[in-house]
Amino acid sequence: MSNRVVGQGVRKKDAMALVSGQGVYTEDIAPGGCLCVKLLRSPHAHAVVRSIDVSRAKEAPGVACVLTWEDAPKTRFTQAGQTYPEFSPYDRLILDRHLRCVGDPVAIVAAETERQALAAIDRIRVEYDVLPAVLDAREALDNETLIHPEADWRALVPECGADNRRNLVAHGCDQDGDVEAELACCDVVIDREYETHANQQCMMETFRAFCMPDAYGRLTVVSSTQIPFHVRRIVATALEISKSRVRVVKPRIGGGFGAKQTAVCEVYPALVTMKTGRAAMLVFTREEAMTVSSPRHAMRMRVRLGATRDGTIRAIDMHTLSNTGAYGEHGPTTVGLSGHKSIPLYTHSLRAFRFSWDVVYTNTMSAGAYRGYGATQGIFAVESAVNELAHALGMDPAALREANAVREGEVMPAYYGETAGSCALSRCIARAKEMIGWAEKYPRRTLPNGHVRAVGIALSMQGSGISGVDTASAAIRLADEGTYNLSIGATDMGTGCDTILAQIAAEALECPLSAISVHGVDTDVSPYDTGSYASSTTYVTGMAVVRACEALRAQIVRAGAKLLGCAQEDASFDGEAVACEASGRRVSLCSIAEAQMTAGMDAIAAVASGGSPTSPPPFMAGCAEIDLDPLTGQVKVVDFAGAVDCGTVVNPNLARVQTEGGILQGIGMALCEMPVMDERGRTMSNSLLQYRIPTRQDAPRIRVAFEPSYEKSGPYGAKSIGECVINTPCAAIADAVYNACGVRVRDLPITPEKVLLGAKGEP
Amino acid sequence: MTVELTLNGRPVRAQVEADDSLYTLLRALGVRSVKCGCETSSCGLCTVHLDGQPVLSCSVPAPRCAGRAVTTLEGLQSEARLLGECLADEGAEQCGFCASGLIMNALALARENPSATDEEIDAYLAGNLCRCSGYVGQRRAIRRYLSRIASGEGRA
């Protein structure tokens, strides 16, 4: 097959609508007269509602309803968007009398206008019985304060090791070989603890959804979500109604980065619509999105890394303590990636590994999914430990990686025993080094102004979908003029997957991209897809598209042969027409399309599924060059070079922008993004002023190169890219800082204070 | 109270509260390009032109716009098209939620300083946050846009 459309850096199909300001997002398409929904939120980290008086609120002007725990359904559910059976425990109510973090909803108010809803909230009187709060994850396990003592708490997958009587959401261990024996034989063992925090995704469009009844008495939910089909299940479960009564529509969405893999906001307007029969919309303020949302799981990771004197890495022992916050969303699953997507990077020489974990409840904001999903945290820890090992051995950290990194064809025991079927990591390392000028710049040089320039390196991997779990379907049909309608359940959140999947379809059908119309997502009409997360769309949904197109081609040939009056076996399709080899006669695709719309012909339409027993990892090498001011401790990244193996690059423009954006998010996590909580459990970093994400002036020169491998199980050789690219900056920058001034920061972010105090030998 | 202003070249008369922002008024008037990404004047998504100058519409009281000319992306479609195409050619619009505000501010930059350097571009647009692109693709797009209008393209 000639790669005519796959591999082209075409514009996104929705690009011109977005850059011309068309009203295509959730709030833009809400119906007139939509009620405004606001939530009264808990001021306490841990409390029980003793009494609540809503009488004055109900009488306030414009108020349509005021709901408290007494009015809400009593079935527990999870807001995590995951394939059934969900790993995250059913530990939430829409409104609960027991409040487990600052910001937990106490009451729902719906009014004609925002002003009226806020005024009504002020009229609610609540008395709380304040309980002792568990704010430190290290004190959570077996604490006498139980965060989920309720009898109806339920873990659907008990194998996670969850136990609400211990504040425990997951506990486990995975190992291969005898890690203690191997460590005992090593010449050097690095034993360190690393810490990351509850970083916010900060997508520009906060959480929002509106709900309305339809003509059939069903509930329509229009949501800015990555997971329409999971939202349908979550809303139905929470409202105690049949899933068949819920329809979820995803319009254009203003970014997600995993935040919207949790149904953070949908159940509240849904309950209002159920109670009032009216359309209702909830738009999270930025403050809500910063304080009661679904940030990255804060993790504390102990890594023991053993090697022989010549730099052969023999054993890795890792324990992760993860803080899931007040609810268990994505708690049991994110933690797994901290080890399973970091340790396998060193498969080549590793003789043994052990990875164990505990995930605990605390009275802090519930964590969720953020791009990288645990791998980001684990890779910061393992890659930092590898850098520390290199310095202990007196080796170049890049050379240490070249000697130990996983190679194509190797079985990765720490990656569920999967084989690295496609892996260009060695080439990525060489390319990233070359781009940054590693040979000349490692480890440091001092500029005439006294600033120090230094470089650092880190590797990364991720998956492509969740093996054996994620599934996606694609439906394609032939339409007028010989064009196609491609229907998908995957959710484009700005990444461009609508376009990428259309490119794959155009490739498979040998047609121009303009012949493919894409539609997604409406759970009533789109084929099932688990959603856009876990780096799955290009790989998992992409294969569904390839298979659907193959099935469609067979139908086109059959219809063409019928019209030509020849045997199906003698006919072939070249994208434009079906030809009969014996007679040489042809019938155009356009004529076939018209014929199917007349009596006597079958509709030409196909549905197929993707879903893979493996999750081929994309790989990346990242090199950072920093500028450190020794007087202030200020660190600035001046150059970042990333070399990525995502298999075949379906759209080089979109892959490059994904990589550049992921790298800058990683730089933000490394240097400036710090969630701050006070001693009462209130998140103080509650705005884009307090929680500073990188601006244009913080963005260094970022350069991206692709070192493609060919993944046989993927569409035209493609793997994933979305998450892998966020994982290298933290460890690369941390080592560049060490190379610049000898200060090792193991607790992100790397602030000027930590650098200066470290240089003075203070902790 | 009632305010009268010019919106995208057309006279508009609207009822506002004294503390309504221009952003609130514009959304109420059905302007869909204008977005809100924060409540702290930090994100730049709500950028519009007030008498031709870029402002954060979330931070301008609506009553202060009486008698003045407000322009949103809806009113600058032909001037904005080339810049939009440059962004699209890089894939740098990504989710697009920040695009309207970015484009409004970048058009103001192009009017003020059409030969802006990368540093000047970054400084002028520093208040326009984007979480998707890492900014470098947007920088390439704006650079290309400036060089294309320098060669005479794209002026409405």
Keywords:
heterodimer, A: 763 residues, alpha+beta, Aldehyde Oxidoreductase, domain 4, Aldehyde Oxidoreductase, domain 3, 5-stranded mixed β-sheet, B: 156 residues, Ubiquitin-like (UB roll), 5 strands
Description:
The complex is a heterodimer of chains A (763) and B (156). Chain A has 763 residues and is an alpha+beta fold. Chain A contains 18 helices and 29 strands. The radius of gyration of chain A is 27 Å and the shape is globular. Chain B folds into 2 domains: 73 residues, Roll (Ubiquitin-like (UB roll)); 74 residues, [2Fe-2S]-binding domain (DNA polymerase, domain 1). In chain B, strands 2-1-5-3-4 form a 5-stranded mixed beta sheet, with helices on one face. At the A-B interface, helix 1 and helix 16 of A face helix 2, helix 3, helix 4 and helix 5 of B.
A few lines on this structure:
The complex is a heterodimer of chains A (763) and B (156). Chain A is built from 18 helices and 29 strands.
Helix content of chain A: 25-40%
Q: Can you tell me the overall shape of chain B?
A: globular
The average pLDDT score of chain B comes to 97
> Percent of residues of chain A in beta strands?
15-25%
Major β-sheet of chain B, in short? Answer: 5 strands, mixed
Our count of domains of chain B comes out at: 2
SS field, number of helical segments of chain B: 5
- Structure summary, number of beta strands of chain A: 29
As a percent range, the share of helical residues of chain B equals: 25-40%
For the secondary structure, the number of strands of chain B is 5
